[in-house]
Predict the 3D structure of the following.
Amino acid sequence: MNEAALAKHYRQLYTDSITKIREEGVVTDELLDAPSDDRRGITLLIRPDNEVKKRILLWLEMMKETEPDQYYYPASDLHITLLSVISCYSGFHPEQIDLPSYNQLIRESMAGEDSFSIRMKGITASPSGVMIQGFSENDRLNQLRENLRKQFKKSKLQQSIDRRYVLQTAHSTVIRFRKPLQHKDTFLDKLEQFRDFDFGTFQVKEIELVTNDWYLRKEKVSTLNHFPLG
């Protein structure tokens, strides 16, 4: 998806979601605070650099003033999903997989790949949360995804890539709704003010393979490997 198409996709998602939130309210996540949630999976992800994180966190603090009861991602959990290799489900344990084979497949898929930049600019939304929009240099993120998809589909390794939906964006989810909005109009007006805010650009120098819960919370994430880029 080129930048113009991606921007259009983000804009349509935002427009549709804000209309739905105004008319019907937000979709709250019932499992967000459930101690019984044992869904786990494996994800390839990208971490923004500290400068980009700092700008996102400052903005989140401002949003928190209006709606303090929602779930705001801490610095440690901010990420962009490259691929959900095994989508989270109850009963999954990383010991079940042949980790060296996964490492080898990923390493071979990324052979010769150079680092690239991602610009985090503007916000979009869904009825269940708020995301920072990401745009990767020359659509490199999706090229990398395609390489990995092809290799995983040829292999016999357990995976559920694209089972929920085909990931094509470079967004980072930063707010999830755990309760109905108490100050809906004020919150949505603030979102609109930052619709095109530039959170900065960072260089993707490595990809991280982790085992994780649904929300990528630090206390539930274990790093399995790092894959440097060019």
Summary: The beta strands are 39-46, 71-72, 80-90, 116-126, 129-136, 172-176, 198-204, 206-212, 222-228.
